Amino acid sequence: MRLVFASNNAHKLAEVRAMMPAGVEVLSLKEIGFEQEIDETGATLEENSAIKAHAVAAFISSQPSEVSHQIDGVFADDTGLEIDALDGRPGVYTARWYKQHTDRCADRIQTATLTDEREIFAANRAKALRELKGKADRGCQFRTVISLLKPSAISHQMSEIQVEGVVRGRIAEEEYGEGGFGYDPIFIPEGYDKTFGELPAEVKNHISHRARAIEELVKVL
Hints:
The protein is of the alpha/beta class. The protein is built from seven helices and seven strands, in the order βαβααββαβαββαα. About 30% of the residues lie in helices and about 20% in strands. About 40% of the residues are buried.
């Protein structure tokens, strides 16, 4: 089975490929020649994951049949960090939360759009730590929503399935570990005393929100 994952994020691709069962090949957008920018205009994780999946499915359906017929499905994910004390923020804005700045000098870096992935990750983590400074409630969850479009969807008979995965945890008071990506160095999953940035990849890939969503995805392939 050949599935297209609507992402070029190397970290996500590595995680997803490691989670898929034998016999399932996961292709990136680059590998199918998709170079468009997808505007994630949805107000929810569900909407954004569907927007991405449909955009890629439309691209595949426009390709010659010898190309499109080699694809068995398209899936896209959208992930949000939902912090209890912040009423579920940043949620749908998780990936670029640093851009939602205030006028404080400490947030001056947020007045410009960053382009380096590592700087974006660092700015997002710094904002999370600032927003929770002095707060006793540091509970949160990561939630991943996956939209799957099966072959009938690619041929314009839209058959869409959505699944999700959730992992509860808390935000650490500072960064720990250099593994993973994104918010991993400040997210401590429930039942553990180490962040995703400290835990071995095989542990994270077993318990993470994305792992749980992929597990649900595999059930409906």
